[in-house]
C-alpha cells in the first residue's frame, strides 16, 4: 500500500513538474511599440506608458493563455524614416511566431510600411484614423491595419450633423470654415467633409491651411471673419497649433463657434488654452478620465496613479492601453482557435464583434469588423470644471451619419 501511495505521489509530482516546464518553454507573444519619447514633438511619454501598462494588464490577467505578453518599446520620435527603420529591424530580428503586432501613432508610418506588411503580415493597430487608409475598402487594401479610433473624415461628418441638428438656430444654412495643418494628413478629411457639407446642407465657405510653425493667425482669422462663417472646424493634432489658434480665435472672432476633431478632445487644453477652450465642441471615440465609474477608465487611472510622473495627455495614454489590450485579446482568441499566428491574430481582430472592451462603452460592445472603432460622442469643454462633458450618448457612427 505504501509503495502504491509513493508511486502515485511520484507520478503526480512528475506531471506537475512537466506541466510547469512546458509552460515555461512557451515563447512569449510580442508587439513592437513605436512611441514618441523624444524628437520634434518633444517627449510625449504617455504614448509609451500606455503600451507598457496595457501589456501589464494583459499579463496580470493570465497573459496569452499562459504565455507572457511583451512589448518591444522603441522611440520612433514621430519621425517616419526612423520609425520605418525600427519596424524593419525588429521584424527581421524577432521570430515570426512570436512577433505578431506593431502599434504606433502616425499615419505616415503606416503608408511607408504598407508593402512590407503585405509581405510579412504583421498586424498593425494604430492611433491613426486616416480616411485614406481606414476607408470603406480598408479590408481589401490594408487587411492587417486596424485603427483605434473613428476616421477623421467621419468625424467631420459627425460635427456637421451636430452643428445642423443641435447648434444652429438661424434660418439660413450654417456657414462653416475648415482650418487644417497643411500636410497630407491635414488635407485628408477634406474629401469627406465636402460630401457631408452637401448631405447636411452646410455651406463650406472656407478651407484654410496653417503650418506647424505659424504663430500669428490674424490673416487666417480675418479670412474667417470675411467669410461670415458661423463655425470654424479645426483639424490639428499639435498641442501648440491648437492652443495658439483657439486663444487667438477667442479674441478675434469670439462669436464664431469652434468645433474640432478628436485630437483637440484633450483635457490638456484647459491648461494651455485656458478660458478660451471653454465652449469648444469636440468629437471623441474615448471615455474621459473624469468618468471614474467607467470600468476601463478606472483600470487606466489605477495604472496611471502608480507612475511617478503625471499623465498629461489622457488620450495618448489611453490609446496605448487600448492597443495592448486589443492585441492581447486577439492573441488569446487566435490561440483558442488553434492559430496563434499573425494571420490568426488578424482574423481574430476582424471577427471581434462581441467584446465589451472592459466596459469602455458602458455595456455596448466593440465591433472591430470594419477595422476601426464603431462608436463616438460629441463633448463640450467646460472650463469651470476642467472637464469635457458629453452632450450626446455613445452612438454608432454609421447609424449617426445615415
Beta fraction: 15-25%
User: What overall geometry do the principal axes of the alpha carbons give?
Assistant: globular
Number of strands: 13
Give the CA-CA distance, first to last residue: 77 Å
Counting helices, strands and paired strands, the structural category is: alpha/beta
The largest pleated sheet is described as:
8 strands, mixed
Helix proportion range: 40-55%
Radius of gyration: 23 Å
User: Stretches where pLDDT falls below 50 for ≥5 residues?
Assistant: 14-23
Number of helices: 16
Summarize the structure.
With 402 residues, the protein is of the alpha/beta class. It contains 16 helices and 13 strands.
Question: How would you characterize this protein structure?
Answer:
This protein has helices spanning 2-25, 46-60, 80-93, 107-112, 114-120, 138-141, 152-167, 184-187, 190-199, 218-226, 239-252, 269-272, 295-305, 314-336, 342-350, 397-400; strands at 29-35, 69-75, 99-104, 123-126, 145-147, 175-181, 203-210, 231-235, 257-260, 281-284, 375-382, 387-390, 395-396. Residues 14-23 have low confidence and may be disordered. With 402 residues, the chain is an alpha/beta fold. The N and C termini lie far apart (77 Å). Helix 2 runs parallel beside helix 14.
